[in-house]
Design a protein that fits this description.
about 160 residues, alpha/beta, Rossmann fold, four-stranded parallel β-sheet, 7 helices, globular
């Protein structure tokens, strides 16, 4: 049975690094939204079209992921999944395809996230966004941490 791995955490928490490790451990297809987004649209985090573009890419990547899961291939969605409702939605989607799901949460303190953000912003990349500090602070407040039952549940 294929498994859908959901990478949960804020920017700079280490999601992509862990996803890259899991990709080899589980012979999985890794789909990282930011890598696609930056290559297609550049550093547009502060542009009005950013969210619509990001949603379009996530939709396209889900189409690829759902086909892979249906074919029996493990998939890693490196989307962040900031809201519990979104995590539950993707877990249900996996179940409907006959796949299991796992949540991988990277729990990083606010201070450490901000430290990593400063480093990230100082190193331009074609795989990660430059994120203004104030934007990151608002995201930290919005983020819904997974509960213990989410993390322990294997579906």
């Amino acid at each position: 049975m294929a498994t859908l791995h959901l990478m949960v955490g804020l920017p700079c928490s280490g999601k992509t690094t862990l996803a890259q490790k899991l990709e080899f451990e589980h012979s999985a297809l890794r789909l990282t939204t930011d890598e696609w987004h930056v290559r297609l649209f550049g550093q547009d985090a502060e542009e009005p079209e950013h969210d619509a573009r990001h949603n379009l890419i996530e939709t396209m990547l889900w189409n690829i992921a759902s086909r892979a899961l249906a074919l029996g291939t493990n998939v890693i969605l490196d989307f962040g999944f900031w809201a519990r409702e979104e995590r539950e939605d993707y877990r249900l989607r996996a179940k409907q395809l006959g796949a299991s799901s796992e949540v991988h949460f990277l729990d990083v303190s606010k201070d450490e996230l901000m430290r990593r953000l400063a480093i990230r912003n100082s190193q331009p990349s074609q795989e990660a966004f430059h994120i203004p500090e104030e934007m990151m602070k608002s995201w930290i407040e919005f983020f819904q941490r997974p509960t213990l039952d989410e993390l322990e549940r294997r579906e």
